[in-house]
Structures are given as structure tokens and as C-alpha cells.
Amino acid sequence: MKAVLPIIFLVISLSSSELLAAEVAIGIQATINSIDIQDPADSERTIARMTSDITYFPTVSLLSDEYYFSKDSNVGVQMQFEWSIFKADKQEVGENDTGIDLGTSISGYALSGVPVLFYHFNRHNPNEWNLKLGTGLGLGYLKLKGDYQITDVTHPDYGEKKQANMDEVGLAVGVYLEANKGNHIISVYTFSPVTQSGNSHFEEYNFFLSYKYRVNIDGLL
Known about the structure:
mainly beta
């Protein structure tokens, strides 16, 4: 867990800023996961790709107050801290991009802390449905464990099963679309932590569709 300390430090350092965390959003999400595993000698070469069917997991987000660039502006920034569980138990082989069961599986969880730059549609009508569209770049923490089979036919270890064990902080890239009304949030977003271990280079891609209910925690901070 030492690798997650930079994200915890980021949360603490923001606690005295204008982007003070103000809300917790709790709900359920439908998730599709994909994990690309690259050859450590050539990060452009994907030697295995793990995938999953649609899975359902609980989800928790920590959200900051929105900071807008002016009183009437629809453009703003918001800190978002996301937590997600994942499991990928299928692999793409050859031209089959739907994934088949090779008896391999990688599971774990991911954390991210991303400042999201967004455009807020219908901002000044909070009692109606609002829409936010944004993107951000920040820190990601990825912990995973399992195994995979090398499916690149040109690789010297083709067909061999390898162990995956990672506990690392890396880059997190996010794209975010949120519809909200009052305390209700329906969101579609992607979160892709990119991390490097001593043996392999992992890129995890998550696609989330979630419903969350916001709880204001200003009085607790």
C-alpha cells in the first residue's frame, strides 16, 4: 500500500484549498474492463489483452466543490477521486475481439485523483437536469493480481502463462460525462491508469455507467 501514499497526500494537500472535497457519491456501476499487457522490452507491443463481460460493482466517489472561472461561466474545474473494483477473465485471441476463456484471470482495484476540466450545460437551472462534459489528467493507483497467457504468435513465449502482480502508482487519464438533478447523478466515464512493473507494462481501460446519490459532507470537514 506504500504506492497509494501519493494519492492520499494529494487529497490532504487539497483539504485547505478552494477545491475542498465537499460531497461523497455512493452508488452502483456497470463496468467493462480491458487490460493491455505490453512486452517490457517494447512498450508498443501488446502481448496479451484481458477483457471482461459487463459486471456490476458498488462505487464511491469523493467530489470537490466546483470552481468556475467566472460568476457566469459554464467552464470550471472539479477534483474527483474515484474507486473501482475490476475483474478481467477473458482474453482476445487473433481476430476474436470479444474475448474467450483461456482459464486466466486478473482482478484488483484502482484509485484515481483527477482534476477534471468541464463544461456545464444548463448550470443556472439546478432544479432541472444538468449536463457536465469534461476531461482530466492526474494520478492513478493500480493493484492487480492474477495470470494471463501470451497470445502474440510472434513472441518467443507464445502460449505460456505468466503471473501478474502489481501495486503501483501511475498516470490516470479520464473522460467524463455526467447528468445530474439535485442529489442524483448518472454518469458515463472512462478511467485508464497506466503503470509499469519490473516484468510488464500494464494499461487498464475502464468504461463505467453508474448511478450515484450525493451526500454533502461540508459540515464534517
